[in-house]
Inverse folding.
């Protein structure tokens, strides 16, 4: 290859072709709009509240995505739905309002895409306690909390109720910082369970006649239902 | 394994133009030793962080109270240091040296390289502190804070200028495989880096398109930047040390190069299989991954003379070659759906990445560094035992690390796929493998410490004749390579 | 002068010069394989491998790409053409109830009894359970002037709810049909649902129309 300019042209064409894949994806996904539900008069996906939106940045900068994913896979690909992580697979439309999409690439810990819909549901106190004390599989994030003396000042209403004084010395209390509270608000806002008609229509495996695909049949029911909080649609 | 070079009996070719160490090497000393020194330093720091994150996998409480080393941030720092600290500096040094040597004229713009190297590493340091204090972008392979990335792009440009000048100002008109790979790496990286910055950080695209762009960048950085940097060194050193032309060079080397460059960046979407992107994106990537097997196969065929051994560089390159090809094959296999069902999101993917990046590219970098430092610094390596020790420890460490992580990944994958298995159970089942992986990281750290000690002892001696004889006297005069008769 | 360092890990020896390396490889390239006798089996085998990989990749793409459709996330679903599940329809009772609660309760009250003298009741009203021609127009275009419902007189102004000029609501025909279905099956009423086709037909026939009056309505069938 003696011809220098031709070589650079070849390199550039290679780059452009690879970028063409991205551009085609952009063409398909770049202008995905929220879906307006006529029945309920509101659009999905939900936008996060202000505190939850700030919490997403806390999640990002602590690197939670190093161990947690936020994507539910389709029914016969892993046990995501059997584990209660979601009623349906995640679609692209679920993520359009997120400033930083944190799909994650590793599951050292469970998937978090629909944390708000878990049964039994988590509440803020549970999550704050987990963040403070950690567990055998989960690191503690004590730097997200203040430890304060309660002797002369009024006790904070946000103080964690950690049980007996084994964790917290007497006369002191643990108060979550604003970062901890926003992180927890973010985690409790994670709910991707709305059943968009277009995606549901093209992604439900209809019950087939062959026995081999019977495993997909329950998925068809699961995918057709919307989240429990919404009134049942006629089917 | 201990055969002397094959042309030793022929009389050396006359003339300083054919001397093994020339003005090219001595003028390049400052900038290249700066780059290699920075690379070695980052390698050691990165190995320490790798050890920390490995421990945190089975003992989450380790350093958890220090916000700088919480697992997510430590992991981001480790990855960043390996890519932008170790691999970038080492790869650039090797590519510049190869281009200068093959171009036949001294490295110009040496001051630009020096300034670029200083600013690149300074930017990296600022970026790492940013990650530690909470400015990480949370994008894999692109964790550096937003404010530092354009700065690093310009620093890279300053270094790449020297490479471009070495290419355009070459005295020998012929081009060779090493040229193509080195120039491709220098030319393509700024494009993908800047596009990724814009589309992910400055004007972020919407929704899961971010994941698609991030995947494209990661694969671009791997196949269009790091792998070519390593291959440019390997393609130069194997024929040079063995004295034989590259087999199957005509047409196939070129096809292999263009396959890598064209198909490489198409493989970005394969980790999104089953995820919230249209099915064609991961499918296209998986198909491309299979197509890329041709490139790996061809590189193995081309560079098979590396297995003749007899030289430190060839030992490292041979190991690196096998690991590079094995990593590529593992990538193609794990991208297929029926395998990804088990391995996605597990330590197995980490194992494959370590095999390709550490076992493959880094080992090829080590080989090239062991070859070029004596010629550039004018002194032989301070200790031969440490060189052999480094090879042994790194080879053992890489094999152990990859095997342990692969085993842990498969256990984790099977556990994840069974809904009744709790995460506590998975952690208990993978604990032994993760302990072994941590031990492997310890071995790798020891090997890198040896390497760093050897390097700084060699390069930083203030007395020019500390090790006695200048390197030019110890070098055998190389002879002429013959193209085989048809 | 020392002798060259051989087989020493501290220094690797090179066997060829850079110039000869370049020259040798260039010579290889210059020698074009147009001598027929020199084709060996190896290059053909490599071409075969390369083509095989392209074929495999293409087949894989064909099977799993879901026809490059942006809404296909599950490639197994799409491959079973013709058995796609339809999207669930909006329930008129739900939509109608929501619309009634947001727009109608202020005047007609949640129980549909209205306000004496001003707002007519919906519960048991002959206008509601009777002719669709009249009922649809009331909601689409509004009502002004006196109206007699269940023997009592009422007089107020009802705004236009349909997509007509001057409407502050601009409800779609589907929403109007839903509200009417709702009131026809609530407050003790039982009458047939109103379809959006009926509303659309009436809307198309009359177009934009000012508020209806009782006289105009009574002229309709």
């Amino acid at each position: 290859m003696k011809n220098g300019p031709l070589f650079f042209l070849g390199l550039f064409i290679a780059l452009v072709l690879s970028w063409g894949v991205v551009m085609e994806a952009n063409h398909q996904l770049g202008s995905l709009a929220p879906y307006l539900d006529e029945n309920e008069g509101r659009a999905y996906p939900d936008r996060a509240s202000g505190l939850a939106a700030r919490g997403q940045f806390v999640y990002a900068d602590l690197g939670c995505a190093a161990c947690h994913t936020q994507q539910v896979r389709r029914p016969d690909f892993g046990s995501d739905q059997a584990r209660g992580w979601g009623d349906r697979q995640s679609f692209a439309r679920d993520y359009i309002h997120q400033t930083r999409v944190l799909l994650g690439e590793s599951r050292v810990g469970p998937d978090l895409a629909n944390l708000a819909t878990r049964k039994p549901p988590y509440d803020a106190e549970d999550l704050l306690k987990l963040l403070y004390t950690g567990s055998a599989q989960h690191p503690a994030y004590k730097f997200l909390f203040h430890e304060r003396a309660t002797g002369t000042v009024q006790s904070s209403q946000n103080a964690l109720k950690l049980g007996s004084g084994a964790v917290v010395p007497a006369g002191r209390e643990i108060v979550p910082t604003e970062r901890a509270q926003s992180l927890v608000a973010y985690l409790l806002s994670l709910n991707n369970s709305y059943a968009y008609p277009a995606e549901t229509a093209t992604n439900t495996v209809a019950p087939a006649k062959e026995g081999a695909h019977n495993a997909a049949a329950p998925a068809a029911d699961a995918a057709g239902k919307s989240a429990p909080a919404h009134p049942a649609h006629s089917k | 394994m201990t055969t002397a070079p094959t042309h030793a009996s022929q009389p050396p070719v006359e003339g300083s133009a054919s001397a093994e160490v020339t003005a090219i090497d001595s003028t390049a000393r400052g900038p290249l030793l700066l780059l290699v020194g920075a690379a070695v330093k980052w390698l050691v720091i990165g190995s320490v962080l790798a050890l920390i994150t490995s421990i945190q996998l089975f003992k989450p409480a380790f350093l958890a109270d220090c916000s700088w080393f919480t697992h997510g941030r430590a992991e981001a720092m480790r990855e960043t240091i390996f890519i932008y600290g170790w691999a970038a500096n080492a790869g650039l040094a090797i590519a510049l040296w190869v281009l200068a040597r093959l171009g036949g004229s001294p490295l110009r713009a040496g001051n630009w390289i020096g300034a670029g190297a200083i600013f690149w590493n300074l930017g990296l340091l600022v970026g790492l502190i940013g990650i530690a204090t909470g400015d990480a972008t949370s994008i894999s392979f692109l964790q550096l804070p937003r404010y530092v990335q354009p700065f690093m792009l310009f620093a890279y440009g300053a270094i790449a200028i020297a490479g471009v000048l070495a290419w355009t100002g070459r005295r020998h008109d012929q081009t060779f495989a090493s040229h193509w790979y080195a120039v491709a790496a220098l030319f393509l990286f700024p494009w993908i880096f800047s596009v990724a910055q814009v589309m992910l950080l400055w004007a972020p695209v919407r929704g899961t398109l971010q994941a698609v762009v991030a995947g494209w960048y990661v694969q671009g950085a791997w196949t269009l930047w790091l792998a070519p940097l390593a291959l440019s060194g390997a393609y130069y050193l194997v024929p040079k040390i063995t004295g034989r032309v590259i087999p199957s060079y005509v047409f196939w080397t070129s096809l292999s190069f263009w396959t890598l460059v064209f198909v490489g960046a198409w493989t970005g979407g394969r980790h999104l299989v089953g995820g919230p992107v249209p099915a064609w994106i991961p499918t296209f990537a998986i198909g491309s991954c299979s197509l890329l097997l041709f490139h790996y196969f061809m590189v193995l065929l081309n560079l098979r003379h590396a297995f003749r051994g007899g030289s430190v560089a060839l030992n490292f390159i041979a190991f690196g070659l096998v690991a590079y090809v094995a990593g590529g094959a593992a990538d193609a296999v794990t991208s297929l759906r029926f395998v990804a069902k088990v391995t996605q999101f597990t330590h197995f993917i980490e194992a494959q990445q370590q095999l390709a990046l550490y076992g493959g590219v880094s080992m090829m970098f080590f080989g090239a560094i062991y070859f070029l430092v004596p010629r550039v610094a004018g002194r032989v390596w301070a200790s031969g035992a440490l060189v052999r020790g480094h090879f042994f420890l790194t080879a053992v460490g890489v094999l152990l690390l990859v095997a342990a992580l692969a085993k842990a990944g498969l256990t984790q994958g099977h556990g994840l796929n069974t809904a009744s298995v709790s995460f506590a159970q998975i952690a208990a089942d993978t604990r032994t493998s993760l302990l072994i992986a941590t031990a492997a990281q310890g071995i790798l750290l020891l090997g890198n410490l040896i390497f760093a000690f050897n390097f700084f002892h060699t390069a930083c001696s203030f007395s020019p004749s500390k090790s006695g004889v200048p390197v030019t006297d110890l070098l055998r005069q190389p002879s002429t390579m013959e193209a085989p008769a048809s | 002068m020392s002798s060259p360092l051989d087989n020493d890990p501290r220094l690797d020896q090179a066997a060829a010069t850079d110039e000869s390396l370049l020259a040798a490889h260039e010579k290889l390239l210059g020698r074009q394989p147009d001598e027929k006798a020199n084709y060996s089996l190896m290059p053909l085998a490599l071409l075969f491998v390369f083509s095989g990989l392209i074929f495999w990749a293409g087949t894989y793409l064909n099977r799993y790409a879901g026809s490059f459709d942006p809404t296909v996330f599950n490639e197994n679903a799409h491959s079973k053409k013709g058995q796609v599940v339809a999207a669930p329809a909006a329930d008129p009772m739900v939509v109608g109830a929501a619309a009634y609660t947001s727009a109608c309760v202020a005047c007609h009250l949640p129980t549909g009894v209205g306000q004496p003298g001003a707002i007519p009741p919906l519960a048991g009203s002959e206008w509601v359970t009777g002719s669709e021609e009249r009922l649809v127009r009331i909601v689409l275009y509004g009502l002004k002037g006196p109206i007699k419902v269940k023997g009592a007189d009422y007089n107020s102004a009802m705004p236009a709810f349909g997509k007509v000029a001057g409407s502050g609501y601009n409800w779609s025909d589907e929403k109007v049909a839903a509200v009417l279905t709702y009131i026809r099956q609530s407050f003790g009423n039982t009458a047939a649902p109103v379809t959006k086709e009926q509303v659309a037909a009436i809307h198309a026939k009359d177009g934009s129309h000012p508020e209806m009056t009782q006289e105009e309505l009574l002229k309709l069938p």
